[in-house]
Write a structure and sequence with these properties.
The protein is of the alpha/beta class. It has eleven helices and eight strands. The chain has a four-stranded parallel beta sheet with strand order 2-1-3-4, sandwiched between helices. Belongs to the pyruvate, phosphate/water dikinase regulatory protein family. PDRP subfamily. Keywords: Kinase, Nucleotide-binding, Pyruvate, Serine/threonine-protein kinase, Transferase.
């Protein structure tokens, strides 16, 4: 890629376009493509909109990624892309065709089914509300109501991981482990397979906590971010996790999505 030329990927959908955007962003991460931008256009309903989108993409020199479930809109996208010489990638079409050919079934061809307000939707909303309300050990009684309890020392990604898993419909609460704080009795009543311990390499945790001190305006060298204190907390947390018999995940350099995938594997 030339560094002096900006590139744009147009993301189109007859729904909100989150599926196509997720695929595009995952692809961008595989390249040194800092100069690439994306533009998302959702709720496309007419062939005239598609003509205008393809024409604009041709002028900008980028390509199009789209999820269109209406066959007439998909066909129009293919025709206009060919006419203007624009690369257009059909994200959902091949998958739908494989489903039709393999299972001899017909699609509903209704946009936005991924986000419809069905039972799964309300379960996700309930799980998110639960995670927010019970974050960081605010409600000890929630430990017994949760499908999963995350434990670990401060700054081991407990809260963002809880919210991410809640978006998958899993009721999660988390509990910080501090040597001076007594463990709640509710924790001992849970089976080990409903608890996951999060840990991290001491050096990495030191860097994260040091940055945290800067962010909140606390002086450098506060006990919270000393290597001695971090080692003490991690040793304590490991003893607790071993005693409970829970799964332990070292989250050093792991993305939230990666850790969540491991945990969901445990739950299955």
């Amino acid at each position: 890629m030339r560094d002096d030329q900006p590139y744009e990927i147009t993301i189109c959908s007859d729904s909100v376009g989150e599926t196509a955007e997720a695929v595009v962003k995952a692809t961008i991460r595989q390249f040194d493509a800092h100069q690439v931008t994306t533009k998302r256009i959702g709720h496309i309903k007419s062939e005239d909109e598609i003509r205008a989108i393809v024409e604009d993409a041709a002028k900008r020199g980028g390509f199009i990624a789209y999820t269109l479930v209406q066959p007439e809109l998909r066909e129009m996208m293919k025709e206009e892309a060919l006419r203007f010489g624009v690369r257009a990638v059909d994200i959902m079409g091949p998958m739908m065709e494989a489903f039709i050919d393999t299972f001899n079934d017909a699609p509903k061809r209704k946009p936005g089914l991924l986000h419809q307000m069905d039972e799964d939707y309300f379960r996700r909303v309930e799980a998110i509300e639960f995670a927010v309300k019970c974050d960081d050990g605010r409600d000890m009684s929630a430990l017994l109501k949760a499908s999963l309890v995350l434990i670990g020392v401060s700054r081991t990604s407990k809260t963002p991981l809880s919210i991410f898993l809640a978006h998958k419909g899993i009721k999660v609460t988390n509990l910080p482990l501090v040597p001076e704080a007594k463990l709640p009795k509710e924790l001992s009543l849970l089976p080990g397979n409903r608890i996951v311990g999060l840990t991290m390499d001491a050096e990495k945790l030191y860097k994260i906590r040091t940055e945290r001190l800067k962010a909140v305006g606390l002086p450098f060298g506060a006990k919270y971010a000393t290597m001695e204190r971090i080692t003490e907390e991690l040793d304590y947390a490991h003893r607790v996790m071993k005693q409970i018999g829970c799964h332990i995940i070292n989250v050093t350099d792991k993305a939230i999505e990666e850790t969540a995938g491991i945990i969901m594997g445990y739950l299955k």
